């Protein structure tokens, strides 16, 4: 069912789609699943060239057994190469390295969920480092925090809607800067060189951000 775990038949259809050269989006459409579900499935199980449905299904069944902790991240291999590439892209975009590692580990997890203890164990970093990273990701809308009332612990979740929320939060902060620039332009005087420069900057940022927000709302349905 959509939103549930992939079945063995689903995984066979993923493999068939990869063999046909279909995009993740097209494979996901045929399965009635989010694109991120397919991309995570492939990345965690050998990559596009090494994906084997039977092996992927057995590995997922092992991870899903009750009481089995998330295993440490295995270095190397096709999925490790994909992970490192995405981490480097995130770091070049300005994300702190440990924060990028935490985010990518969540993105590539089977169900997009990890506890702080699992992240600490898998990444081999201190609990304090994980705490700083997840707080940053939550504040910027990349992940959300859920409370496991039975075990009294937080669970960090990344889902399709996280991309929408991160875009909207970023746009909101930029809009605040744009309007601050417009207010400062008024204070300096519209006819002054400083006022004109601030007014141009503020108007540019304001228009771009409003367009971005409108676009995010218009295309949000692609994430469901």
From TrEMBL:
Region (Disordered): 30-80
InterPro entries attached to this UniProt entry: Homeodomain-like_sf, HTH_MarR-typ, IS30-like_HTH, Transposase-Integrase, WH-like_DNA-bd_sf, WH_DNA-bd_sf
Pfam family, one: MarR_2
Lineage of the organism: Bacteria, Bacillati, Actinomycetota, Actinomycetes, Kitasatosporales
Name of the featured protein: Helix-turn-helix domain-containing protein
Residue ranges of domain Transposase IS30-like HTH in the record: 5-45
Gene3D superfamilies given in the database record: Winged helix-like DNA-binding domain superfamily/Winged helix DNA-binding domain
Gene source species: Streptomyces chrestomyceticus
Domain HTH marR-type: 109-153
């Amino acid at each position: 069912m959509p939103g549930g775990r992939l079945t063995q038949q689903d995984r066979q259809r993923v493999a068939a789609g990869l063999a046909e050269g279909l995009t993740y989006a097209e494979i996901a459409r045929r399965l009635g699943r989010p694109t991120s579900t397919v991309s995570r499935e492939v990345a965690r199980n050998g990559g596009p060239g090494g994906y084997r449905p039977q092996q992927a299904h057995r590995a997922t069944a092992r991870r899903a057994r009750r009481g089995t902790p998330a295993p440490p991240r295995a270095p190397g291999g096709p999925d490790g190469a994909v992970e490192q590439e995405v981490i480097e892209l995130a770091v070049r975009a300005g994300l702190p390295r440990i924060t990028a590692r935490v985010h990518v580990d969540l993105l590539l997890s089977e169900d997009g969920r990890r506890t702080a203890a699992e992240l600490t164990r898998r990444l081999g970093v201190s609990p304090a480092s994980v705490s700083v990273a997840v707080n940053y990701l939550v504040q910027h809308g990349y992940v959300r925090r859920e409370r496991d009332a039975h075990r009294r612990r937080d669970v960090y979740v990344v889902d399709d809607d996280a991309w929408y929320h991160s875009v909207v939060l970023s746009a909101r902060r930029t809009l605040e800067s744009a309007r601050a620039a417009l207010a400062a332009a008024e204070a300096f005087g519209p006819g002054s060189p400083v006022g004109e420069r601030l007014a141009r900057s503020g108007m540019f940022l304001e228009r771009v951000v409003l367009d971005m927000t409108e676009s995010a709302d218009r295309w949000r349905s692609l994430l469901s």
